[in-house]
Amino acid sequence: MNALFKALNDETRRQIVEMLKERDMNAGEIADQFKMSKPSISHHLDILKRADLITSEKKGQFVAYSLNTSILEDLINWILTLKK
């Protein structure tokens, strides 16, 4: 769960999650939405993948990134258990 909170603690990564909520995207499409280098975007994507917030799938010469909604459901369920 620590990796999940670390991943969500960054504004850029939260924006990437929001973008992937709408549709699957490749790294280039994601990078085009930010004013930072592609290696920096790749670093953010790696953190999101290690937190299981996103998944990746090779499609031809590109890698498509998707939002992993099951980890978000787990997070919501955990938060709800804190409510008394």
Automatic annotation (TrEMBL):
Transmembrane segments: none annotated. GO terms for molecular function: DNA binding; DNA-binding transcription factor activity. SUPFAM superfamilies: Winged helix' DNA-binding domain. It holds the Pfam family HTH_5. Gene3D superfamilies: Winged helix-like DNA-binding domain superfamily/Winged helix DNA-binding domain. Residues 1-84 form the HTH arsR-type domain. InterPro entries: ArsR-like_HTH, HTH_ArsR_DNA-bd_dom, HTH_MetalResp_TranReg, SdpR-like_repress, WH-like_DNA-bd_sf, WH_DNA-bd_sf. Keywords: DNA-binding, Transcription, Transcription regulation. This is Winged helix-turn-helix transcriptional regulator. It comes from Bizionia saleffrena. The lineage of its organism: Bacteria, Pseudomonadati, Bacteroidota, Flavobacteriia, Flavobacteriales.
